[in-house]
Amino acid sequence: MASLPEMPLVALRNPGSGAKKPFSAPNTLPAWFHEDEDPKPAGPRQRTQYRTIWISDIHLGTPGCNADLLMDFLKSIECETLYLVGDIIDAWRLRKGWYWPPRHNDVVRRLLKMAKHGTHVVYVPGNHDEVLRDYTGLAFGDVTVAGEVIHETADGRRLLVLHGDQFDSIVLYAKWLAFLGDSAYEFLLKANRVVNFFRRRFGLPYWSLAAHMKKRVKNAVSFISKFEEVVARAAAERHVDGVVCGHIHSAEIRQFGDIIYYNDGDWVESCTALVEHADGAMEIIDWAERKRIEAAEAAAQPARAANLALVPA
After folding, report:
1. How much is the pLDDT for 140?
2. How far apart are CA 22 and CA 10, in angstroms?
3. 33 part of a folded domain
4. Cβ atoms of residues 241 and 260 within 8 Å
5. Tens of pLDDT along 112-134?
6. What count of other Cβ atoms lies within 10 Å of the Cβ of residue 62?
7. pLDDT tens digits for range 59-101
8. pLDDT at position 9
9. How far apart are CA 227 and CA 231, in angstroms?
């Protein structure tokens, strides 16, 4: 039975009050923090309010990161607490070669601004940004770094929050195999970008080839199912009510006995987030699917208008 390794644990119920704040690094922000993400804002936008949001596996520093969709999502929401559940920055890819377009700065700027304006931001590093695990317990500006966290929902449930790579035997026991797998996955993401380049040329919304392939490969489906089961079992050993993780790029809400398993997905393949409403209800937001629906409705509007014009008065 897989057990969680001992890591610094932070319990969060009311992040804005109570416990003494951790040591904070100097709160100096670079000049680009004060720039606008969009030179020509489209005007005020109605934001959806959530109590808590979890996002992970953004993989900033890679061509596969869907920064535009993520920015669109971040500008549409407000929340009390935001958990960054690992692999936010892809240090593995950056070691191979530098890739950091301006849009990735925009994502970092937006996250820092959310923290600056009152959102409690907690960064739980993953395997691709594991270098930040050395800074567990520190606060950088208004962002706290934690190895793992206990989050208490509005309805009183205790959820363990961690990235999830602790349970991936490939990453844990043979990192060179993980790098090899990462290279093959990177090739698949390149094919994904080619597919979506042509989809954009034909006015079609984003669609993930990588996610489509993963759901149809038997070994991938088997690994995901086993991963979910092992994580839920380890959470039960911690006597919590549920667990929230990322890592496998597969958004899910699933019950295992008394434990609810939540995975917030990713922003490379599926573009999803996990949210908690004011009453404690949890939901997966599939932002790519939502944008596809919006695009389809927008495309159908001229046809509807034409049909209405043909109806006799």
Report:
1. 87
2. 11
3. no
4. yes
5. 999 999 999 999 999 999 999 99
6. 21
7. 999 998 999 999 999 999 999 999 999 999 999 989 989 999 9
8. 55
9. 6
Amino acid code (one letter) for 233: R
User: Residue 239 and residue 234: Cα distance in Å, rounded?
Assistant: 9
Number of domains in the chain: 1
Sign, CA dihedral 174-176-177-178, equals: positive
- Are the C-beta atoms of 270 and 249 separated by less than 8 Å? yes
The whole-number pLDDT of residue 264 equals: 98
Sign of the Cα torsion 145, 149, 153, 159 reads positive
The full DSSP string for 52-77 is EEEE----BTSTT--HHHHHHHHTTE
| CATH number of the domain residue 193 falls in | 3.60.21.10
Q: Is 31 part of any domain? A: no
Residue 109 CA to residue 302 CA, distance in Å, equals 37
Task: Tell me the C-alpha distance between 61 and 66, whole Å.
Answer: 11
Which structure tokens are listed for 206? 């984003």
Question: What pLDDT, on a 0 to 100 scale, did the predictor assign at position 292?
Answer: 87
Q: Which residues of the chain have pLDDT under 70?
A: 1-44, 169-193, 195-200, 202, 205, 207-223, 303-313
Classify residue 88: in a domain, yes or no: yes
Relative orientation angle of helices 67-74 and 287-310, to the nearest 10 degrees: 80
Q: Give the total residue count for the chain.
A: 313
Instruction: State the residue range of the domain holding 80.
Output: 9-13+46-310
Residue 164 backbone dihedrals phi, psi, to 5 degrees: 115, -10
Residue 151 covered by a domain = yes
DSSP-derived secondary structure letter, 19 = S
CB 110 within 8 A of CB 74: yes
176, two tokens: 């060179």
**Amino acid present at 57:** D
